[in-house]
Amino acid sequence: MGDTAKFIVEGKEVESPILKGSVGPDVIDIRKLYAQTGAFTYDPGFTSTASCESALTYIDGDEGVLLHRGYPIGQLAENSSFMEVCYLLLNGELPSAAELDGFTRTITRHTMVHEQLSSFFKGFRRDAHPMAIMVGVVGALSAFYHDSTDISDPVQRRISAHRLIAKIPTIAAMAYKYSVGQPFVYPDNKLSYAGNFLRMTFGVPAEEYEVVPAVEKAMDRIFILHADHEQNASTSTVRLAGSSGANPFACVAAGIACLWGPAHGGANEACLNMLREIGTPDKIPHYIERAKDKNDPFRLMGFGHRVYKNRDPRATVMQKTVREVFDALNVQDPLFETALRLEEIALNDPYFIEKKLFPNVDFYSGIILSAIGFPTTMFTVLFALARTVGWVAQWNEMIEDPSQKIGRPRQLYTGPTQRDYVPVGQR
Ligand code: CMC
After folding, report:
1. CA of 30 to the centre of ligand 1 (A)
2. Whole-number Å distance between alpha carbons of 324 and 140
3. Region (Disordered) spans which residues (predicted)?
4. 264 and 336 together in one domain
């Protein structure tokens, strides 16, 4: 028997096995603890709890390392393509040239959505947040594909995964088009995944849309940077929803709902709004003081992370990409200077040093997306688009795992103990 951890609960000693991953912290397997002791463990926010076994993504938060199937995110962002990263996440290995070609063709051939799906958009108010539209319309996909609802069949699961990855840019672009009152643009299968998305978003029937290669590259890189990120809140939501055997499109819609919050994917939108509010570098000290004040709900958006206690490696790539996009589009944004200065000031402030708060992926992404022409309300939609592959890869891994049960946490109950009902006239 390998290493064990000992628990003494009300005088009774029990041993729990310690599991070892290929890298990273050991994990105490407490699955039998309740049966052995009658006690639960308590970990709101899952700060010390591994909820599953996974071979997809690894983060070393102290060192600022992020690996997808073992490959560092910086190398993938520099040398790979989003299609290749999707293949890698779904299949475990990088594809050969022929495999990549075949996979790209399959995804491309699924980019159209059922024409009837367009009717869903009309049910939304014109000023609806595009994330609200995404939650609804992606959930609605579950009503369209009755040929792939048997989640115990790996082939059907694969088809659902391909459909989700292929259709999410089309739906995201439609959400944008609806919000600006322009006609939906159909996919053009001659274009790349990122190029197609840009054309469906910014193209109009009256004019030929030219994809700017540097912007297409930046878009593809942003998708790579967001592809997967271990057991974050939205991924855990997708897994929890899927653990009951729910339809994959509905599970991804649940993930989108969770991603929307400002502590998670909504931070990119909140971060750009914050930078706009700060405006010029001379206002930074005031906002730094607010972020440090416990009585003020203001937080520095795009800063801090549950896992990274060092610079988020994705933020480094993002910062570099800002300059590339600015050069390609020949634009400048004074907010970039404000962001750089804010980072510098925060990283030299004892509060941020002590709490190990560094820029995360969202700190610079908004500046790039804004330069490309996206309104802030679309930022989290782009995150959802890119994270869809991570969600389906994790969902699929969960279903293949024979030890996975329905997710059903327990609780520390602090409500009233049993009491008798009192009729309304006697209260
Ligand atoms: N500004 C000011 N103080 C902060 C910040 C911040 N951005 N982030 C954390 N802190 C403080 C927090 O007040 C707490 O202080 P204390 O120990 O005195 O109570 C300490 O740092 C630890 O923070 P926490 O909230 O307990 O940590 P957490 O792991 O629960 O939260 C977080 C992580 C990302 C929600 C949080 O850092 C945050 O709200 N950041 C701003 C939002 C943001 O940028 N989110 C994007 C995350 S990356 C993209 C993604 O995964 O979606």
Report:
1. 28
2. 38
3. 407-427
4. yes
